[in-house]
Amino acid sequence: MKSKNTDKPFEVNNENDKLLIYGRNPVLEALSGGQGIERLLIQKNIEGAGRKIYALAKKAGVPIRPMERKELDRATGATSHQGVAAYLTDYEYSTFEDIRAAADSRGEPLFLVIACGIEDPHNLGSIIRSADGAGVHGVIIPTRHSVSVTPAVVKASAGAAMHMRVARVPNIAQFVGEIKRENVWVYGLDMDGTDYHEADVSGAAALAVGGEGSGLPRLVREKCDFIISLPMRGGVASLNAGSAAAIALYEMAYRRKKTEA
To answer: What is the DSSP string of 60-100?
Structure first.
């Protein structure tokens, strides 16, 4: 049984357009997740896991600034920093080739999320978090008409954005056409599709999720192999993009696992 995580949720502030994260687990994730750390802020005379963070940052050549606890409170705007915080360099996006290589290295059929025009950072963060938990190899977002990986997205992802591969492409519909030619089946999540329980999601697959209110763009929808939907049995007609994606992704992950077994 996994031990209970007692760390506070992933937290970020935005000061002078720099991404500031705090909390022991988030900073450890940043140190190990391939994202550059510009500077570590650490409480003077810190003990326990804080010493490990200090040692890792020193080994990596990260500038370290020891601070009194009250100084750290002011820098983070919170008291739940657990004695550590870090300024990150700009978020490093992946490429589709990076994502495909990750799937190949794990010996798994490609598993993607395509987020089409998600403008709410909390929804994109939620999608990235669910994608990470479901074993997705990468998330694709458009370069325009969509939120990018911002501090709010990182916070909503609970730190998953630090190690989930996120790639940006200029044209989502064109990208869908390209991956279909590589035998990736694309499932569009929308309100009026086939019950998602009935879809065969074995093999290389991508889940396309539309924006809040507008749903899947027409050109993307037309290129999808299947349109699937979640059965809604209550008084609400639909879920938000983040919640709907989470349900569909975990169902896809479960069924893909059963197919592989």
So the answer is: TT--EEEE-HHHHHHHHTSS-STTEEEEE-S---B-HHHHH
Containing H/E element for 134?
helix 121-134
CATH code where residue 29 lies? 3.30.1330.30
Look at residues 40, 57, 88 and tell me which one is the last residue of a structural domain.
Answer: 88
pLDDT at 2 over 60: no
| Residue from 78, 90, 91 nearest 41 by CA | 78
**What is the spatial distance between Cα 237 and Cα 141, in angstroms, rounded to a whole number?**
26
Is 59 inside a domain boundary? yes
Q: Which residue spans within the chain are E strands per DSSP?
A: 11-15, 18-22, 37-43, 64-67, 84-88, 111-115, 138-142, 166-169, 185-195, 205-209, 226-229
Determine contact, residues 75/119, Cβ cutoff 8 Å.
no
Structure tokens at 48: 């326990």
What is the pTM for the complete model shown?
Answer: 0.78
- The structural domain count of the chain equals 2
Decide which of 191 and 166 is more confident: 166
Of the residues 88, 107, 123, the one at which a domain ends: 88
Does the pLDDT at position 1 exceed 70? Answer: no
**3-state DSSP percent of the chain in helix, strand and coil, to 5:** 40, 25, 40
Please state, in angstroms and rounded to a whole number, the distance separating the CA atoms of residues 97 and 103. 10
The radius of gyration of the chain's CA atoms, rounded to the nearest angstrom, is 20
Task: Please write the tens of the pLDDT for every residue from 135-163.
Answer: 999 999 999 888 998 767 877 887 788 88
